[in-house]
Design brief:
four-stranded antiparallel beta sheet, binds magnesium ion, Dna Ligase, domain 1, binds adenosine-5'-diphosphate, alpha+beta
């Protein structure tokens, strides 16, 4: 599944489609938000891939996911997608003892003293982003020493009027070592890549296949295990995004179970694993 207006190209899609067809699977890309597209029940199986506008229509997307899950075999399944829509799931990871990026949660409509929050946490360089988001939508960095506090407060006021908002310290390690995305496909960690920092309006820059440390591997496995335990769903794919912390090692910034880029170009083995899992799964 994709969306009508893809905000950026998806390097996975052509590769996945070609490999699926090569494996004898009849496959095509269909937009979830295309009212003229065929109903989900026409397909034996739907795989969410580049539905990259869902955060703009979260209620509609959730309703569509439920329908698709009822009518056909959807990957990932609705229960785990719903669990993953709001980044509040990070709290479940934290509760399970997994290191996560420290976060202050600001509820929709709350009258929030931003200065108090950042001062109490000692954050002089911080990031503000919606709790339901993707592709760095409305994600901004603010620096107190650059006099950006006022701008941050008005940004928050605007954001929090209609949605839950997260404030986090700026993880400086993303500038040096970089953010790392660890892919998990059909039951196991397959590969990883590094990403450059990206804020609203920026494009994405990614590396080739990167090494996975034992700590990163364990965090990725444990994060997926929390999602499985809380939803009862075994996903087909997952991606765990890690930000390096100078003192405490890698911290989870996101667990992506909806429509993560899986950077299949960087790992033919992972592509094979995904194709095999799709081609051999029993139709529902
Ligand atoms: N706490 C943070 N410290 C440093 N960079 C951040 C932080 N939070 C977000 N970013 C930057 O913003 C990007 C988007 O944020 P992310 O949490 O990955 O949300 P999404 O991918 O859903 O838009 C990240 O890839 C990173 O470049
Ligand atoms: Mg991200």
């Amino acid at each position: 599944m994709t969306c009508l207006e893809l905000p950026e190209p998806d390097p996975d899609s052509g590769l996945l489609l070609a490999s699926l067809r090569q494996a004898g699977v009849e496959a095509e890309f269909v937009a979830w938000d295309d009212p003229d597209s065929s109903p989900p029940g026409r397909f034996d199986r739907l795989i969410l891939r580049s539905t990259w506008n869902y955060h703009l229509f979260p209620a509609e997307f959730a309703a569509w996911i439920d329908t698709a899950d009822r009518r056909t075999c959807l990957s990932n399944r609705a229960a785990i997608v719903r669990w993953n829509l709001h980044k509040q799931y990070l709290e479940s990871l934290t509760a399970a003892g997994i290191p996560t990026v420290p976060t202050a949660w600001l509820r929709r409509g709350a009258d929030v003293p931003l200065r108090q929050i950042v001062e109490a946490n000692g954050w002089t360089d911080f990031v503000m982003k919606p709790a339901i988001s993707a592709s760095s939508w409305r994600t901004h960095r603010f620096r107190v020493d650059r006099g950006e506090m006022e701008q941050a407060a008005s940004n928050l006021e605007e954001l929090v009027r209609n949605r839950d908002v997260m404030v986090q310290p700026y993880m400086t390690g993303v500038d040096t070592t970089g953010e790392k995305a660890v892919m998990w496909i059909d039951g196991e960690v397959t590969h990883a890549i590094r990403k450059r920092p990206r804020f609203a309006g920026d494009g994405e820059f990614v590396s080739g296949a990167a090494e996975i440390s034992p700590a990163e591997h364990a965090i990725a496995e444990r994060s997926v295990a929390v999602a499985v335990a809380e939803t009862g769903v075994r996903p087909l794919y997952a991606r765990v995004d890690l930000m390096p912390d100078t003192d405490e090692g890698p911290m989870v910034s996101e667990l992506e179970l909806i429509e993560p880029s899986l950077y299949l170009v960087q790992s033919p083995a992972a592509l094979d694993r995904l194709v095999r899992a799709i081609a051999t799964a029993p139709a529902s």
